[in-house]
From TrEMBL:
Keywords: Hydrolase. InterPro entries: Isochorismatase-like_dom, Isochorismatase-like_hydrls, Isochorismatase-like_sf. Residues 5-156 form the Isochorismatase-like domain. It comes from Pseudochelatococcus lubricantis. Pfam families: Isochorismatase (PF00857). SUPFAM superfamilies: Isochorismatase-like hydrolases. This is Nicotinamidase-related amidase.
Amino acid sequence: MTRRALILIDLQNDYFPEGRFPLENIDAAAANAARLLDAARAGGDLVVHVRHEFASADAPFFAPGSEGATINTAVEPGDGETVVLKHAVNAFRGTDLKDVLDRNGVSDVTIAGAMSHMCVEAAARAAADYGYTTTVVHDAVATRDLNFNDTTIPAAQVHAASMAALGFAYATLRSTDEYLTAESPAA
């Protein structure tokens, strides 16, 4: 029997417009993640919130105990929902995420959150490597511009490249609407 988990990664205040490390389109991504969260709760899926904190109080963002490291109210954890605290890019590294999924009989994971090219990509690749059927909801994910060799790569291109790489071999990619339509009981 298929058991699904929704994993929401790093949708924390520092990534929002008033935070210390804002991402492009984070409000839209969080709104879509909230729709996924509502559907997961209604469908009885396991919900796992992943929250990143750096080790040092002088971190550029996600400082321990800071308001910026708090999960945004758009997707705040509900009673009984698991929150995994991580200190690395990959949500599986040094955490009990895999144990939580396995203990709950999860075979399929759906991933949303931030950032496309970092924590979302790392978690999706790890989930696939661990044998979970992996879906990334691409419009419930956000990132920011990057710079390489004095060239600015716009966030939309960073996101597209990350999603293309994941879609090639690691995950099924869906929009929020596609995902919710495909996963609804009437579908």
